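task queued by scheduler; priority normal; single chain, no ligands, no partner chains; default sampling; output format set to structure tokens
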Amino acid sequence: PNSPNQVWTTDFTYISIGPKRHVYLCAILDLSSRKCIAWKVSDRIDAKLACDTLEIAINKRKPKEPIIFHSDHGSQFKSASFRKLLDEHQLLASYSKPGYPYDN
């Protein structure tokens, strides 16, 4: 993408916070700059974490045009609540090939 708010991408990772303890980070990047535009940390890797992070990005960027939103096939990104949020804000879901993490 050659300008902001054309393609966003997301994924989860975990952060160790002690022996046998960790939290999950959901981050959203704008691919035109590769900068993180939203992030949130939680002790659960669920659809709520994905939705909350997406809402942060939407509220921060306030997109006016449709955006391609790329993710893997994680259940959080295919959940009804997440898909509803995408539809409400004209975000077009794009998914990497199943079993092909190199797309992320």
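post-processing summary
- The longest helix spans residues 47-61.
- The chain has a mean pLDDT of 94.
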